[in-house]
Design brief:
Shape: globular
Helix content: 40-55%
Oligomer: single chain
Order of helices and strands: HEHEH
Number of helices: 3
């Protein structure tokens, strides 16, 4: 327990520090636009996952990860 939660910027900063990665090296997959916006402010790569369109969302992820 760290005392922060999404979309507080502190939780993203802490996650970034703990991974030792730069923001551009992190891919954040989320279904809430507010949480995506907070991660994007730290230059994280983001994908808005749409559980109503699973195939489309999975395809976006695959393309970014170069799985296709």
């Amino acid at each position: 327990i760290v005392g922060f939660r999404k979309p507080q910027s502190e939780i993203y900063i802490l996650a970034q520090q703990r991974t030792g990665l730069r923001g551009a090296e992190i891919l954040f997959i989320e279904n809430s636009q507010g949480n995506i916006d907070a991660a994007a402010e730290l230059e994280w790569q983001t994908i808005k996952y749409n559980p109503q369109k699973i195939a489309d969302s999975n395809q976006k992820i695959s393309q970014i990860l170069e799985l296709e």
